[in-house]
Amino acid sequence: MPGPLTRLVLPEGEGIRVDTHLAQGDRVSPHYDSMIAKVITSGPDRPAALERMRQALDQLQVEGVPTTVALHKAVLAHPRFCSGDYDTAFLEEAMARGEIVLTEDGTGEEA
């Protein structure tokens, strides 16, 4: 959804990378992809990288436009995703089983 980024604080730290072209005060345009940023984490193993992503999403602050941060946190809390035993149907299946629920604003939460 387009709108102004009234607050944007990006995560930082070891093993955290953020790719973005936006800054606080910029406006998310309706004419382009509304992705605000791509957050990438790495670590010596999957559990470490997942923990860094949880920390990065906790640090991320976005105000002014809706985000999918809550949905990403719900995915990161799901045991099947954490185990690495998932495929491209994972999110759809988890939502169908009520394990991950989309909120009214289109974000998400863990059930």
Annotate the secondary structure layout:
Layout: E1 3-4, E2 7-9, E3 16-19, E4 27-28, E5 38-41, H1 46-59, E6 61-63, H2 69-77, H3 79-83, H4 90-96, E7 100-101, E8 109-110
Antiparallel strand pairs: 1-4, 2-6, 3-5, 7-8
Helix pairs in contact: 1-2
Describe the protein.
The chain has about 110 residues and is of the alpha+beta class. It folds into two domains: about 1-65, no CATH class; about 70-110, no CATH class. Helix content is about 30%, strand content about 20%. It has four helices and eight strands; from the N terminus they run βββββαβαααββ. Strands 1-4 form a two-stranded antiparallel sheet. β7 and β8 form a beta hairpin. α1 (about 45-60) packs antiparallel against α2.
Keywords:
single chain, about 110 residues, alpha+beta, two-stranded antiparallel ribbon, 4 helices, about 20% strand, globular
What's this model, at a glance?
By secondary structure, the protein is α+β, with helices and mostly antiparallel strands.
Outline the biggest β-sheet.
Answer: 2 strands, antiparallel
Give the beta-strand count. Answer: 8
Cα-atom Rg, whole angstroms? Answer: 15 Å
Total of helices: 4
Shape: globular
Q: What's the structural domain tally?
A: 2
Structural class: alpha+beta
Record the strand order, biggest sheet.
1-4
Characterize the quaternary organization of these chains.
Answer: single chain
Proportion in β-strands:
15-25%
Low-confidence stretches: none
Could you tell me how far the N terminus lies from the C terminus, measured between alpha carbons in angstroms? Answer: 25 Å
Mean pLDDT: 90
Percentage of residues assigned to helices: 25-40%
Order of helices and strands: EEEEEHEHHHEE
